[in-house]
Amino acid sequence: MPHVPEASLRPAEQRAQPASKGSQAAVPLLSIASTDPVMPALSKGSSRPRPRAAAQPQDRRGERAEQTSIKGAGTGAAAAPRTRSRPKEKVLDGDMAKAAAVVDGLVFPKTAKWRRRAPRIVVNKKDSEDKFIKSKAYVSSLPAEDLRENRHKTCAVVGNGGAMLSKPWGSSIDRHDAVFRFNDGPTEGFERHVGSKTTYRLTNNKWTHFYSKKHPRGASEENIVLFGHGSAGLGAHLVHEFPGESVLLLAPEFASQARGQYKQGQAALSSMGVVEVHGRNSAPTGIEGIFMALALCQRVHLYGFGVERDPSVPYHYHDKVRGVEAAHSFGFQALLLKLLKFRDIFALCVPGHDTEECLSPELSDPSAYDRAVKSMESAGGGAARGSSLRGRGTTPAADDEP
């Protein structure tokens, strides 16, 4: 484990603090048109490992400068997706502090409002009345109770983006108490960069079908987490095929809330004139996984979620598939991740944004997330911040009960 001098660590209280009124000039967002992916959408790409990209030089900008500027937002660590006749999206000029205020209007796990809307994390025997679970065998395999909040101290959420090849993250990822992975993201052959430990593997409808026939290379999970009605239909089959593994079903209301916060964040930023998205902007698989980790873990670190424009970085770390921008707004995804990191909801472990806790998770502050959401709640959350946004034509919809 690399030695990290204590003097190089900054107190959590000094991180992610928005500029007070009049303390400094507003920092504009960079106007760009984005096409690169952030949260990788998976497809039937080649299963052969992609040649590992050379490590990218790390941007060692000062933390203060990084926190008050989101230049390059709207870019993912990926090869250029298929082109369109017009840009899918634009991230426009705006004020970082006002954009970050949108995050304060969202609802996050482990808060009273979230618990009212999504009382369960996973479907369990105490609450197994979901109509789409028709298999008695599957019901019998459900956990007796819901998963407990804060059951893990540190968690790594590992995306499938090519940014994973930028550094040998593997040993740092494996030192987390729990590791989340997605769909077909393999570990075999990539241990140096992505680690070998998997605690939860989230699979969407498409990849549940794939998973029911073949494990991802190197996979050895403690829990397979399904979400979506189509995935639930294969739950009984997975229980039969992989009796040594726990097959969990993310509670529908939990998944719905995670996607809802994503959409409401986009709507608020669009009303503020910060983001323009043309066409669909489906929430990616990573959203459910991030919110699940926020519920189960004290401190969350995100790896493999690109937020900077770099066409030399592949879309996936494990194949040559290219991203498709038709269904997702990759620029908004990048901006949202930066804003959440700005508010200290999680640590963003990608070049130019990573800190010491990304390499040494044991040094992270387990109370950082709780302080962040409590600060938002004490300030009134979206209701208190809403007045400053309404002048720009925005009322944070996340504060309204669905």
UniProtKB/TrEMBL annotation:
Keywords of the record: Disulfide bond, Glycoprotein, Glycosyltransferase, Golgi apparatus, Membrane, Signal-anchor, Transferase, Transmembrane, Transmembrane helix
Q: Where in the cell is it found?
A: Golgi apparatus, Golgi stack membrane
> Region (Disordered): which ranges?
1-93, 360-402
Stated EC number for the protein is 2.4.3.1
What enzyme class is recorded for this protein? transferase
Pfam families in the cross-refs:
Glyco_transf_29 (PF00777)
Query: Care to name a GO molecular-function term for this sequence?
Result: beta-galactoside alpha-2,6-sialyltransferase activity
Q: Where are the transmembrane segments?
A: none
Q: Which reaction does it catalyse?
A: a beta-D-galactoside + CMP-N-acetyl-beta-neuraminate = an N-acetyl-alpha-neuraminyl-(2->6)-beta-D-galactosyl derivative + CMP + H(+)
The name this protein carries in UniProt is beta-galactoside alpha-(2,6)-sialyltransferase
